[in-house]
Amino acid sequence: MPFDNILKHYNYQLPKKLIARQPASPRDSARLLVYNRKDNETKFDTFANIGMFLPKNSVLVFNQTKVVPARLIVRRPTGGKAEILYIDHNKKYIKALCNKPLALNSTVCLNHGRDLNKHTFVVAKKENQFYFLKPNFSTSQIKSVMEKYGQTPLPPYIKNSPLTEKQKQQQYQTVFAKTGFSVAAPTASLHFTKKLIVQLKQQEIAVKFVTLNVNLGTFAPLREENLATNKLHSETYEIDKKTASDLNQAKKQGRPIIAVGTAVVRTLESATKNHQLTKLHDQTQLFIRPGFKFQFVDGIITNFHVPKSSLLMLVSAFTGRKSLLSLYQIAINKRFRFFSFGDGMLLLP
What we know:
alpha+beta, nine-stranded mixed beta sheet
């Protein structure tokens, strides 16, 4: 089937006013759609009551990655400003996107007042849409530079959020963010408060954490080569040995493993062989779409995703495409809020 025709199967019409521009407050007041695959039953509530719908002895797995303020404003040699988005780095270069053309071998500098030339970057090369910038400081310092001068990398569809920069940094971050180097938040986890997590533990719901560094692929549109190779963008994940041991034991015991977010689904399924976690630190390019056989994940907590996206395909692999699009239409009819700051759904085994 031609690429465009495949994407059409994962399209839906969303009124723009249903795109959430700021999160629910408090976080767990976001609305919740609950879908049980076994009996094809749909219920509605709020995230604060999610414990009522989780199977007995469930294990919730969260992504504890931390979002860095990855957008940097630079001044070009012409004097004009541009916005670069950090993607990755090695010992020599910083890999980034830019919203304006940058001339090779030119020098750009961070636009921060009196210290205008304190942090500069030489545009060393360009590959496809990515620029490779050589800084006048060690690339190991890029995180601290972003934390001081960067801006929160909100997705394009909520870039004009009414939130202040300080509010963005607080609210586009999970309450348990601990480690990692992500340019996008694990948005399904944004609905959880510390109080809600305590309540779930008291309900004997186990809570475990893994780390996957979310990168540009979250925003990138699907390409024909993704379907041809059956691979997505590469993202690094890590599961510590104790967590893996606990999760493997829970799986053997038949406890339902509920992944909080698509990043956790990709992490667990990438690390699994014969229904057990074995590859605990690696890069994943796993493309989950209908036809995929889940080995470890039994249920998913997720937001409502952008049309024609790999994330929509991943969730479709769990529910079935027609069922998922039907749920999306129900959510639209009930005025649920969509995308990163929007409401969410619990998909049960």
